[in-house]
Amino acid sequence: MNGDIYISRYSAWAPGIKSPGEWNEWAAGKREMESGTESPAITFTDSLFRRRLSQISKMTIQVVHDLLPLDPETSMIFFSFRGEISKQFSINRTVIEDNAVMPAAFSLSVFNAPIALTSMALSLKGGYSALYPGYNSFSAGAAITEAAFASGKNNEIIFVYADEMIPPEYEGIQYDNSNSPFPLAFSLLLCRQPSPGNIPLASLYSENDNPHNFLKRLILSKGMYVSA
Fold first, then answer.
1. How far from chain centre, in Å, is Cα 62?
2. Closest Cα to residue 45, out of 32, 60, 27?
3. pLDDT value of position 114
4. Which of 71, 81, 123 is nearest to 209 (CA)?
5. Residue 190 bridge partners (DSSP)
6. Phi and psi of 113, rounded to 5°?
7. From CA 225, how far away is CA 228, in angstroms rounded?
8. What predicted TM-score, i.e. pTM, was given to this entire model?
9. SS3 17
10. Residue 14, beta-bridge partner list
């Protein structure tokens, strides 16, 4: 991967971890991440807008909001292993039981819903990509961001990872090291400038990586200073 992509700011959100100190404890192996359906309040959005949003959409909006201020034309890349899995499961159950799907429910269940809702909530107009990782590897995000910068039109890019709580009906599914069942979201503001405090993205990636280990290395290298 090209070595001239840097992390200038970042943010993370997960159930049960609130303060920078708690994030640092988690990264150091002194605190466990919780598995639950808790979501950020996102009180900076309209109540009618947020009332039907899922955990993953709320987490995605929160971690990008925590990067503000941002250039409204900044592009975003959304990366997830499961997407809107709870809403997808609900729709599948409705199809089986009622042989029908409400259009409003379907529009909030598609894979790109979290990042699309984020662009609406925060008035970001730079466009976005919503990508499922090839070969079940978080490391694919490195190649994606490199390609985005290579296009020449981006000075900064927001990279967002998010996965929500798995519905109880899926608890028997086995997950490998890249696809953790714990809900987590984080965002990275990426740039080309090697300014003081910026971290080379290449220094944090490893082969067959997973998002939890990547975030731990980031926190241990820089400290958790942006948190909901």
1. 10
2. 60
3. 94
4. 81
5. 7, 157
6. -55, -45
7. 10
8. 0.88
9. strand
10. 17
Domains and CATH numbers, the chain: 6-179+189-208 (3.40.47.10)
d(CA 18, CA 208) in angstroms, rounded, equals 28
Q: Say which residue the tokens 């950020």 belong to.
A: 40
The answer to whether 109 and 87 are in contact (CB under 8 A) is: yes
The tokens 């949003």 sit on which residue?
53
Digit-coded pLDDT (tens) for 4-31: 899 999 999 999 998 999 999 999 999 9
Per the listing, tokens 């990008």 go with 64
- Residue 128 sits at φ, ψ, to 5 deg, of -150, 160
Q: What is the pLDDT of residues 125-168, one digit of tens each?
A: 999 999 887 666 777 777 788 888 887 777 899 999 999 988 77
Rg of the chain on CA atoms, in Å: 17
- Which 3-state string (H, E, C) describes 71-112? CCCCEEEEECCCCCHHHHHHHHHHHHHHCCCCHHHHHCCCCC
Q: Which residues contact 104 (CB under 8 A, 6 or more apart)?
A: 52
pLDDT tens for each residue of 73-96: 999 999 998 888 777 666 666 666
